[in-house]
Amino acid sequence: MNNRRVIVKVPASTANLGPGFDTLGMALSLYAWIEMSAAETTTFRLYGDQMQGIPTDKSNLLYQVAQLVFEEAGVSIPELDIAMYSDIPLTRGLGSSASAIVGALAAANGLIGSPLPDHKLFQLATKLEGHPDNVGASLFGGIVVSAWDGERADYVRLEPHAKLETLVAIPAFQLSTEKARHALPSQISMADAVFNVGRSSLLVAALASGELGLIRHAMRDRLHQPYRAPLIPGMSAILEHAADYGALGAALSGAGPTLIAFVDADSKDKPQLEQFLLATLKQEGIEAETMWLKPSAEGPVITVEDAASPAPGLMERIKGEVVR
Ligand code: HSE
């Protein structure tokens, strides 16, 4: 029997960054942890609020993803012991499902000696998620620019600017990606397409060259945010005015409902920006939690151990790192 135990720490992510719908993503300093080893019988230990309602049989996403890796690598490990804890809120637009997919891919690959290269894991993750933006960010860390044609995903990773920080406002309600995608039109005008090509290109160039002052103009979008705004009361006002309160720019995080502001880490305006976001949502009757998050420079951090060696439980192991 396979004699390894693998622990993977995987970051959350924000997708789109405004105009880069299904294309741009950035990893964030909010994490999930997955522990995996071969077992006699499949068992799950799922900890924390984010794991409620997650299946604990072989229909579990982590199990399914792991089996895909084994199949791809031509090995058989039908029974697994899987533990998971996540600080990443579910269905809020912070890439929780992408983190689970990437974490499970990395854990299963690590368990069998990492035969699959990252590029292959990216292809598998993109296919599973249906778009490359969140999975690319969780897999490679930093800012990831990606494109997928349904067959092949390509990407370039950018190092986030050292001064870049983010403020997320996470509304108390959930919004499924499916519902938020359903709100989108099937066709858009040439003028809106050109608008977005311009903004998205400008944003990538600004992030790559460190011209943070351009972000507020580059983060504008006509492809998805205007259509999703009715689902998130307060969103339009926040996107329009966040820069007046000191943000470098603001966007809907992924499919929402979380809103994300990019901020200069040294800005003195951070408290007033946080207040503006919370007050604007509150005016609409929406309670929200704010978090200051840094870009996460790394993708999954993998620890491989001898399964026979004594080990603390997952929660004991990560207790100094969890935030919730
Ligand atoms: N690009 C995706 C969307 C991210 O906006 O629908 C959410 O998973």
Automatic annotation (TrEMBL):
Enzyme Commission number: 2.7.1.39
The UniProt record lists the keyword Transferase: yes
Gene3D superfamilies: 3.30.230.10, GHMP kinase, C-terminal domain (3.30.70.890)
Record PANTHER family: HOMOSERINE KINASE, HOMOSERINE/4-DIPHOSPHOCYTIDYL-2-C-METHYL-D-ERYTHRITOL KINASE
GO function term, MF aspect, one: homoserine kinase activity
Pfam families documented for this protein: GHMP_kinases_C, GHMP_kinases_N
Sequence ranges assigned to domain GHMP kinase C-terminal in this UniProt record: 204-268
Compartments where found: Cytoplasm
A GO CC term assigned to this protein in UniProt: cytoplasm
Family: Belongs to the GHMP kinase family. Homoserine kinase subfamily.
InterPro entries: GHMP_kinase_C_dom, GHMP_kinase_C_sf, GHMP_kinase_N_dom, GHMP_knse_ATP-bd_CS, Homoserine_kinase, Ribosomal_Su5_D2-typ_SF, Ribsml_uS5_D2-typ_fold_subgr
Biological role: Catalyzes the ATP-dependent phosphorylation of L-homoserine to L-homoserine phosphate.
NCBIfam families membership: PRK01212.1-4 (NF002288), thrB (TIGR00191)
Name of protein: Homoserine kinase
Reaction(s) the record says it catalyses: L-homoserine + ATP = O-phospho-L-homoserine + ADP + H(+)
